[in-house]
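Pipeline run #58 for the internal structure catalog. This entry was flagged by the ingest filter as a single-chain record with no existing model, so it goes straight to prediction. Upstream metadata was stripped on purpose; only the residue string is passed forward. Reviewer on rotation: M.T. Logging verbosity set to normal.
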Amino acid sequence: MITRRIATFAFIFAIVALAIGLSSCERIQDMMPDAEIPPMEEETPPMTTHGITIGVALGLTGANAEPYGIPMQEGLELAREEINMTLPPGMGINFITEDALSTVEGAKAAVQTLVDKGVPAIVGIGISTHLKEAFPIANDAGVIAFSPISSAEGLSALGDYIFRAGLATNILTPVGMEITQAELGYAKVATIYDDADEYSTSNNKVIVKELEANDVEILTQETFQTDDTDFTTQLTNIMNLDPQPEALFISALSTEMVEVIKQGRAAGIPDSVHFIVPDLTITEIQAAGDAAEGAITISGWSAGSDAPGNDAFVQHYQAKYGSEPLPWAAQAYATLHILANAIMEAESTDAAAIRDALAQTKDLDTILGKFSFDENGEAMYDRVRERVAHIVKDGQLQPFGEE
């Protein structure tokens, strides 16, 4: 991790703060020689002698709070505390947090509010559907928008200031499918996905592409929409297929994912039909209960990874929050360290300079593995195959394919 180099933050902050203090009045007079200098705003500016202020936009209320927003907040806060502990008092990272309300409009409003407050970077917005609408607001304003977990294919290409720490569906899902097919040998499958959700439609598209490339027959593709609660029709259609599928791929966000799993087994879909559910976590497993037993997940991070600093992160998280971290907490934790590294490399708190440093991130040691961005700001890391697939056994996730 960057903690062995982060002490240079203090030097960078001190130099920038000194430059601001010595030259701000002179620069204002040069820019507005005949204008009255406005009074200082009460809002803490993004760069002061206190360090740098980063915007945080997360769904902290609503349907996405418990499964996604709160874990991300916890990961970000743990990283912030660890980074700031290495710095002199008052020199570090500060947060301004806005609740994105688990809605598209809430996400847009949160990002706009943070842009208006003048932050150089915004971290958050985990839901791809929300990111697609909200992050262009930051991009157009020249503010970095960095999502820890959004993974629908291609969204980082929306703008030069947009970055993501989670592996996109077209990078992660094919690896998991290769692993599961090699073990299970499925030849006939079905899929069900949320066609109103950007991530779910992206993931299903990738799944179908990979299945077709491997000559796996897709018996049906059933759809539903976000906030649907009754999946009886779709699951009955799958149950009545002849021949019966050997696997069912489920692409959905947390709430709908749980209901599809529960209602699928309740509808009579037998255990011989493997439920393959990308991004299934212990949160959904506990909510689905016995119906989740035997389900297989595909994830870009595991608590059992031996990536640099991962064991320490898991221990510190458990000590602080009393539970094992979800992938979303881990990815948020890594996100802030990646951003902090870029600030250090840029030797600046200017958004454009930090953006350039982020884009040049290459083989940075993180708890996700050696981390880089591709030319579009998409995450790449070297441990894509490590512990990608897990299976639910006795209510817990265990590495898939291991006895």
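catalog note: The first helix runs from residue 8 to 31.
catalog note: The chain has two domains: 2-167+305-381, 170-299.
status: ready for reviewer M.T.
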